[in-house]
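Milestone M4 deliverable, item 7.
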Amino acid sequence: MAATSAAILNGLGSSFLTGGKKSQALLSSPVAARVGSSSSSSSSKRFDVVAALPPKKSWIPAVRGGGNLVDPEWLDGSLPGDYGFDPLGLGKDPAFLKWYREAELIHGRWAMAAVVGIFVGQAWSGIPWFEAGADPGAIAPFSFGTLLGTQLLLMGWVESKRWVDFFNPDSQSVEWATPWSRTSENFANATGEQGYPGGKFFDPLGLAGTLQNGVYVVDSDKLDRLKVAEIKHARLAMIAMLIFYFEAGQGKTPLGALGL
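Output delivered:
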């Protein structure tokens, strides 16, 4: 009887049925061993139950596991929106994984702003987004050189601070790092997490926290839900922008493609 139980456990522990090393480790745990030992005892009728862990969500529909293609070992689910998508193995290095997540957040936020701007801009003016800058009727209170110089100056300052803060977290919240004496607290990372500054300045509506006696207090549950929602919308917006580019190459616009 003991040999039969061991054979069953070994069969259940195969990678074909379990779909990964995590399940194999679970079945080879001391709890599972007790199941086998209890079956060999004729005097005991009680069996310990092995609690099944919830399967990790996969980026391939209906596939729960199956090696690094679906469930890479370097993606442990700690990142918001982690569904095991890294077929090229770009995130094997933890330092690169951190950088790629930062880049995904920044590009995704820009894409979300761009998608809204494209729809609203064309609906308001009737001018395709890829022709708006060259249209004679476009409102241009500044020359191109002035606009470019201003953008480089302002964006250069903000991006340089973000770049430095990425490699040296919280270094940009000190008093001398900002040109105004009382704004350093606006750049402090109130959430304590890279890429999610929060605080009175970056979360004025209090969506992920509350102000208590003038101090921003993070609501972890709300913040976690917002992280997942943001990264999902960001990825959708980046795909939408890619489609917009292909449409523009054919002289079409998003509203035109929708028949509006």
